[in-house]
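#data-curation
PF: Archiving a pair of folding outputs for the training set. Convention for this channel: one message per protein, sequence first, structure tokens after, nothing in between. First:
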Amino acid sequence: MYYCRTSYIADYNRDEAVKYAIKWALKRNPSYFDFEKLGGDCTNFASQVIFAGSGTMNYTPIYGWYYISSGKRTASWAGVNYLFDFLTGNKGSGPFAEQVDVRDVKAGDLIQLSFGGTPNYNHTPVVIKTGSTANLDNILIAAHTDDRFDYPITNYSWADIRFLHILGVRKP
């Protein structure tokens, strides 16, 4: 942990994130709305996982990352591309990430898949297991919408893929 101007940066708790993903991969946490019938629940689930590992939301209206209820949340909580924009651009409270090569992904990180090609990404699985050096052949994920647990990422057919590595969490 190290300090910055008005907050400090804490480690992202990957163990807690993965524990949450394992517990809820094949069922729904009743504390959160299920977005499956509104376009999919994958990014909502990914956000829940990240929150389990970070413990901090960013309550900035419109551009933050938070969930209070289905009607009081940011687009980044449940929208694939909005979550990417938040995590890679976040300079305030909460988790922050960078897009990395497959070999730099770890358990608790995210993968985003585009089925029709960039710039539109459609799915956000959570990495729950990798080999000692991650590669496409040894990554297992958990996901909602088409619920998956211990599922090889190579079982998907995608046009584009990107990997998001959670770097840490800014705490107020």
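PF: Second:
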Amino acid sequence: MKLTLRIWRQTTASDLGSYETYLLENVSSDLSLLEALDQLNEQLISSGRRPVSFEHDCREGICGSCGFLVNGQGHGPRTATSVCQLYLREFSDGAAITLAPWKAKAFPTIQDLMVDRSALDRIIAAGGYCSTGTGQAPDANAQPIGRQQALKAFDTATCIGCGACVASCRNASASLFVAAKLAHLGQLPQGQPERSTRARTMQIRMEEEGFGSCSSNLECEAVCPQEISADWISWMHREK
């Protein structure tokens, strides 16, 4: 198939940046979008030009490293899919695809499609853990947890921290991310001792990092590759 890629190129954070257009011909529809970018980069390197910078690691939709806007949508048109699992068969032959980095004040651009998402790490460092001393690790089955309780905790624990929810929100809010991290621990017995303190400190840190507030537009839920429900945001607000 034949594709036209319109990609945001920005050398440094201080550079204004602009879109550049590239043509890919005779590419297999079985390639992922990231593999298509790999192929483009091989062509650019061969011609002595700077390759396109983008983040990736596992390429299995697990690590959350990859992520950018595909035709204005976080992770692209396929729901419940991270960009590394988005295949060219989702696009028609001859399609023009626009790729842009996450756009948010708290996600400063590093280069091209790469942004600095360390603000999310700092929110976790502010309280997204259990620090209560427990001594030697207890047996995994020492404290029974109900099936429904465990499932709810697991549903939110699946957040991979990709940042798509932030980039798709008109307010650049990290509410879904923070809610998922709070609900993961808040549903389990181990997370109860610091539950209220954790909710307060993480939400305060979210505001300090420059993320906006939630206005319930649900774009975050729509682009989440793990399909985490925005209902957890309401749960988070009750925790504070």
